[in-house]
Design brief:
It is a multi-pass membrane protein. With 486 residues, the chain is an all-alpha fold. It is built from 20 helices and no strands. The structure holds tryptophan.
Length: 486
């Protein structure tokens, strides 16, 4: 029995999928979240662990996720179910598909709020509302922007409506076309900002802050955050990449695609860091200022730059477009599922999920004004949505898919989809069976406080544990070895 279904609707052109997947990956996560998290968790140590997570956990997980999507040719729920059934496993495994779909939905509900900030700032940039000479002035503008639930809600509602409109139309062409100018445009703009920063102060400090790798300085919370962010920034375990993978033509190489997307995404995040931190240091701002960081530092930096007003408008246009191309990917899984399983038209599916989304996102939006003190354990609704999805649901989903692919399902499926050389396949298996699961589990254990991890001094132990578990696993079920020796 072969489960290979015919795809219903394929990406256009050679670069279609890469553009769409990059559009999903590159977003607020790179330009808004990465800098503020780096600032909060102390700089270089966070960056280093984040890069390690991308390489050892994110890339293998992304390959696995695309393989599931393409093999199953359906929404994440159906794709996981079909691939499991092809290996003679029960429907229960589609639970991971359900969890991803839910995570995508929850992420989108706070993502539209931040995308709303971006639109609000675009409007302020055009209408001259971002004047002021000090960090305090900028903090006041940011505070005022959030204080009024009606205007703040109007911006996030606008983002929701535009997202649903695009998704309802069927997304490929629009996304692909906007990505073609946006990616090069974004790189050029960030480069210009970096070059400017090199000559105007704060740059050396920024480089030291971002790249002085003192791993010992990283807290458990920082470790968990770095792993969660690796999932977030690559759009993993929330249905997006799997749903897009369902439209990937058979002829495309999953490995090559994955590396292209991951490299673009990482470069843009690092460039954003290099463009943003000089302004923070030059103006004596605290890098640990939290989610408002870029909204408080950048307008100040743009004011000091030649042509700053124009560049600022361009910057917020790009940030908003980047946010939209990510937002549409987060709801694609839900919409695909509603059309396949509930027989809805795309439009109807988009608008009905839009309504539910709007309710949840309104709660998230209220965290910045009326609901600022609806907290549980010190976290607002907005914080909880972010925390639960990024730190727990996405890594758990990634863990589940990797273990399924590594141990539970028939290896032919993945050999068929990934089409790697024998050595490369063995390496991929090693990653999904041992390296990424162990990494994820260790970080969870550390975060739960069961034991504390200090990679800086304890890494030989972790390596020993990894080797021991690998050897044990290969004695019990020797897949990797079989691949290696043929
Ligand atoms: N990766 C995007 C960013 O960095 C956000 C995103 C899009 C996302 N789709 C996702 C995050 C799916 C998690 C899951 O901004």
């Amino acid at each position: 029995m072969t489960a290979r279904q015919q795809p219903k609707n394929l990406w256009i052109g050679r670069w279609g999928f890469v553009l769409a997947a990059t559009g999903s990956a590159v977003g607020l996560g790179n330009i808004w979240k990465f800098p503020y998290m780096t600032g909060e968790y102390g700089g270089g140590a966070f960056v280093l662990v984040y890069l390690a997570c991308i390489l050892c956990i994110g890339i293998p997980a992304m390959m696995t996720e695309i393989a599931f999507g393409r093999r199953g040719r359906g929404s994440p729920i159906d794709a996981v179910k079909r691939v499991a059934q092809e290996s003679g496993r029960g429907k229960i495994w589609s639970g991971f598909g359900w969890m991803s779909m839910l995570a995508g939905f929850m992420i989108l509900s706070f993502y539209v709020v931040v995308a709303g900030w971006s639109l609000a700032y675009l409007w302020k940039a055009i209408s001259g509302g971002l004047q002021g000479g000090s960090v305090e002035d900028m903090a006041a503008i940011f505070g005022a922007n959030n204080a009024n639930p009606l205007t703040l809600g109007a911006w996030s509602t606008l983002v929701t409506v535009v997202t649903m409109f695009i998704v309802g139309k069927g997304v490929q062409e629009g996304i692909e076309r906007s990505m073609r100018w946006m990616m090069p445009g974004m790189v050029l703009l960030l480069l210009a900002m970096i070059v400017y920063a090199m000559f105007s102060g704060g740059f050396g400090e920024a480089v030291t802050f971002l790249f002085s790798f003192e791993v010992g300085k990283l807290s458990s919370a920082g470790l968990l955050a770095a792993m969660g962010h690796a999932f977030f920034t690559l759009s993993l375990s929330a249905g997006a990449i799997m749903a897009y993978g369902a439209y990937l033509p058979d002829s495309k190489s999953i490995a090559r695609t994955t590396f292209t997307v991951a490299i673009c995404d990482t470069l843009i995040a690092l460039m954003a860091g290099l463009a943003i931190f000089p302004a923070i240091f030059a103006n004596g701002m605290d890098p640990a200022s939290g989610p408002g960081l870029i909204f408080m530092s950048l307008p100040l930096a743009f004011q000091q730059m030649p042509l700053g007003n124009v560049l600022q408008v361009i910057f917020f246009v790009m940030l908003s477009v980047a946010a939209l191309t990510s937002a549409v990917s987060m709801i694609e899984a839900t919409v695909a599922w509603l059309t396949e399983r509930k027989g809805m038209s795309r439009k109807r599916a988009a608008w009905s999920s839009g309504i539910v989304l709007w309710l949840l996102s309104t709660l998230a939006m209220l965290s910045f004004n009326l609901g600022a003190d609806w907290t549980l354990a010190g976290k607002t609704v907005f914080d909880w949505l972010d925390y639960l999805t990024s730190r727990w649901m996405m890594p758990l989903g990634g863990l589940g898919l990797c273990l399924m692919a590594g141990f539970l399902l028939r290896d032919e499926i993945f050999r068929d989809e990934l089409r790697l050389s024998r050595r490369q396949h063995a390496l991929w298996l090693l990653m999904v069976r041992y390296v990424s699961p162990l990494g994820i589990v260790l970080i969870f254990i550390d975060a739960l406080g069961v034991m504390s991890i200090d990679i800086g001094s304890q890494w030989p132990w972790f390596l020993a544990v990894l080797v021991a578990i690998t050897v044990l696993g290969e004695m019990l079920s020797p897949r990797v070895r079989r691949q290696l020796v043929g």
